[in-house]
Amino acid sequence: MRIHKRILTNVAAPLVGAVSLLGALTGCSKGDEPGADDLVRVGKAALTREALSEAMPRGLSADDSTKYAHAYIKQWINNQLVRQVAANEIDMTEIDKMVEQYRDELIMWEYGRLMFDSHANLQIPEDSIRAFYEANKDEFVLSRPMVKGVYIKAADDASALPEMRKLYRSHTPADIDKLDKVASTGAVHYDYFRDRWIDWEQIESRIPYDFGPSPDAYLRSNKTVDYTHGGFAYLFDATDVLYTGQTMPYEAAHDLIVDRLTFRNKRNYDEQLKRNLYENALEVGKISIFCDLE
Questions:
Q1: C-beta neighbour count of 267 within 10 angstroms
Q2: Is the pLDDT confidence value at 218 over 90?
Q3: What value, to the nearest 5°, has the Cα angle with vertex 195 and ends 176 and 205?
Q4: Residue 86's closest CA among 130, 147, 43?
Q5: Would the CA dihedral through 159, 165, 166, 169 be positive or negative?
Q6: Strand 146-155 with 189-199, pairing
Q7: Which tens digit of pLDDT belongs to each residue from 66-108?
Q8: Is 224 left (phi over 0), alpha (psi -120 to 50) or beta?
Q9: CB neighbours (10 Å) of residue 148?
Q10: What is this structure's pTM?
Q11: What's the rounded Cα separation, in Å, for the pair 184 and 191?
Q12: Angle at which helices 17-24 and 62-86 pack, to 10 degrees?
């Protein structure tokens, strides 16, 4: 087995863009005369400029095109070396069977996906999602806390900071309205989420404070934060907390349920599709069975 070495000298030269690269990678070689479009050969296998061009992603810069082409060519050489050596050491009949089986599975998967996307009702009714949640709550357990509340980040010298400190823990409608007005102009970041659950990590990541190794332990003893650091004041008030191990709220479980129901519907659709194909083929005489399948 011989590898033509023209590629080693040509790819090392400065190249400009994919077109320049593909042009520069041609040249003369010793030994067997290569095809006009060949870039490199390993034994009787050849990588052509056309094949490399088709494999190269569009929109790369000149430098990235060169790097991609070099990497692709080296990988192609390695693949060919392994393939040609392995062909003498392993049973290629078994490999061919596995490839054919995998090909059939890919065809079935892609056909099923196409049919499902084209014909199935992908919209899952909200009442079905809710019903699944109610029937399977024990499967939706929090792995970390979730909170409802108020979060504010403001400059520590902001004129509105004293007023925000007075209001951010209040639940009276008048104070909430005042806080909205003051924080909307006086805070760097203001998030009012007493009406929805969010992951505690979203709050923890915003405040440069050491909450300790256990967020559950911290939240059981501390529902508020008033912390100043690096020129900013951080205010947080938790009005509700769900701890690790408790049932996930419906809002948090919603997308997980949609994914699960979609997967289940897709699996059922695939089974029905296979049955329909089989029954139709029997009906038109496309299948001839000469054995007992029961």
A1: 12
A2: yes
A3: 90
A4: 43
A5: positive
A6: antiparallel
A7: 999 999 999 999 999 998 888 888 888 888 899 999 999 999 8
A8: beta
A9: 18
A10: 0.62
A11: 10
A12: 40
